[in-house]
Amino acid sequence: MATEHKLHEILFSMDNLPAELKDGSERNRLSRHLDSIIGFSHHTRTQLLLSTGQEAAYIYFLEKGVARGYYYDPQKEKEHTVILWDKGSIFTDPSGFFKKLPAGLNIEIMANSQLVFISRLQLMELYRLFPYTEIFTACMTSRFTAYFAKRSHDLVSLSAWERYQQLIRGFPGIEQKISKEMMASYIDVAPQSLSRLLKENRRF
Question: 49-59: string of b/e by CB count within 10 Å (b at 16+)?
Fold first, then answer.
């Protein structure tokens, strides 16, 4: 019997689950194979997992903690945080990993986080052994597309304070997990502007 953990739960709850995975024995067979190939890492400090231009060779599952994806503008010497991931998220640089292009996104894992990861080569072998699991890629790319569409809409349709409130609701306790500069970058304001918003709305 395969060891059940959160990754299995997330995968098996995806939309349009293939008929094969409605069979308990096949689900166990897939779970055992996954457990035999995935890697684990614990990060006691903030660490860069992927830099722009590198090969995006891994896809990650966040068992604990927070990660972020950001772009760096060398002219303004400024980071633009475009996505945050919390516990239970599957993440990578989508175009880099799925299209085999150089990564366009920097990915950073915060301190006190735990990851499960699998390489692209291992994923391709998984698809060869279990062809129906290619649905997972379709589901993941669909989620990335939906996320970035909503993110783009929110940046132009919500006020900075509304974006901040949405961040706090979506990521409970995020204030203790990332810096104020990262939070400001995510809601697309300067750190000084975020401080002013918090003071005006009596959040200290």
Answer: bbebeeebbbb
- Order of all β-strands in the sheet with 78-86: 47-50, 106-109, 66-73, 78-86
Residue with tokens 């997992």: 49
Asked if pLDDT for residue 112 goes beyond 80, the answer is yes
Q: Are 26 and 89 in contact (CB under 8 A)?
A: no
Task: Verify that 110 and 22 share a domain, yes or no.
Answer: yes
Question: In terms of residue numbers, what domain contains 182?
Answer: 158-204
- Model pLDDT for residues 163-192, shown as the tens digit of each residue: 999 999 999 999 999 999 999 999 999 999
Pair 32, 112 in one domain: yes
For tokens 């994806």, the residue is: 69
